[in-house]
Amino acid sequence: MSYSRSKFHRRTGSNPGTIPEYKVSLLGSLGVGKSALTVKFITRRFINEYDPTLEDTYTKEDVIDNHMIILKVMDTAHEDAENLERYLRWSDAVVVVYSITSKQSFQRAKTLLQEIAELQKTKEIHECPVVLLGNKNEMERYRQVSKLDGAALAKQYACSYHEVSAAGEYDEVEFVFHETVREIKREQERHMPLTPLFISEDKTLSSPIPPNISTKDRTRIGTSPKPPKVLPKRPVHSFKFFNKGFKIF
What we know:
Layout lengths: L2 E5 L13 E8 L5 H10 L12 E9 L2 E9 L5 H10 L2 E7 L3 H20 L7 E6 L11 H10 L3 E4 L6 H21 L24 H9 L15 E3 L4 E3 L1
Parallel strand pairs: 2-4, 2-5, 5-6, 6-7
Antiparallel strand pairs: 1-3, 3-4, 8-9
């Protein structure tokens, strides 16, 4: 696996070759751990201190379900409506992050989900998978947002819900990013055009072909229309009536 870090405005275009590329943005209040989650996924390391005003993108080659992919993760820093629209247009999926130790960050997550829904309706922005993610669950003793509240909010906006810790196990953080990519794939598959099914109009029905018929005769029989069945004429009886009884001819 390999990864790289670059500023958003230096982001490259589509990747060469046939490796699919997916783009995910992390949104949420400052200090909820967006940078820590991103770096944990990219490097497997936990770093506690970041500059919250920097907006970076990270690129990582990864394997999901035995398929090589390229995942670009944007660690966002700006919360105004103009930048939110920019994030949505760039992303294949968004992860809205809050801290379970902060009711204020949870309220901001609610607002973000509402703003995302409105932008997708009014700005004709493509609908993409949205994930609600509660971070810092290693700090259970300081919890201010319950799991029930998180799950209820996710249900309200029809998005998936997870709780993790950027300071905890790497596998849990990896699972969230991998599940997000799987949701992107499912969304893309739902919008794939269906392959039309063509049925030949000259297809005819035929009676079963005996096994001892040659290949040439099989072809002739299989492609020749079945002759119409001719029903034998039934005899017609004539009746003549006389004054004294009747006779049949």
